[in-house]
């Protein structure tokens, strides 16, 4: 049965702990997919422009401990099943989902992302280890066929890579933060299916988690926001000389576990049981808050209901299910006391 939103915050999959998820825009609706870690399930919901929410068929068994979901194409999801050591492909049919392919992963996968890194027109897959010091790249060979993995060296625990054309050469690159080293790194995509790994920064706090890329100070250059679990979030503002100027957003309790950047430069940060919205104001940051669940990570900023205003999708990974906070977010958020 469809659920109608009666407020600007909607919670779906209320009792679950979604460790990862994605948005999949399709036709006139947007689909939300989540790896329901504790129950070993893949869930998909359809979000209509009128904010009605309905499950897209029954939840599906994946095997032990799914951790991450990404869009492969408009009709296909790729899922990392960390505990079982599997990568799965799921096709979204008219009213259900079917698993169409499955392969053994090179290592237990914490997170995965997709993109065409070699420019051959086929989607490629990058996986990050639950516990390790390298990323694996599977080159797409058409449909859901993949090459044997190629490995990119990294420091310990390079979780949550982000796909972004950082150097503006038309090829997507990879950026990530390493939980155990504190490093923020770039793997620059080069011709011939090669990557050059560069360390951009080391955070001063403990355990950087998700990063986000966006123009925070509205100067036409892309910046990086690093969510730091113990300490202040670090905003790496790109300078005209190719350097990075560091600004910090203080935590309201311990620190942050997720980050996003809106089109107007507003930073969205996930902190336990709340989202913090931050805007640069003079020499500091103006901040407001919205409610969230437990350990709100990851989060996705997008216009989910297609009304021209950005919303935020939050996967409360330690409990509380999935939240959608519909915009305008800044106007709805409460100033800090």
UniProtKB/TrEMBL annotation:
Record's keyword terms, sorted: Signal
Identify the PANTHER family for this entry: MAM DOMAIN-CONTAINING PROTEIN, SENSOR KINASE-RELATED
Which species is this UniProt entry from? Aromatoleum buckelii
The reply to whether Signal figures as a keyword in the UniProt entry is yes
**Pfam families per the record?**
FG-GAP_3
What's the protein here called?
VCBS repeat-containing protein
Give the coiled coil ranges: none
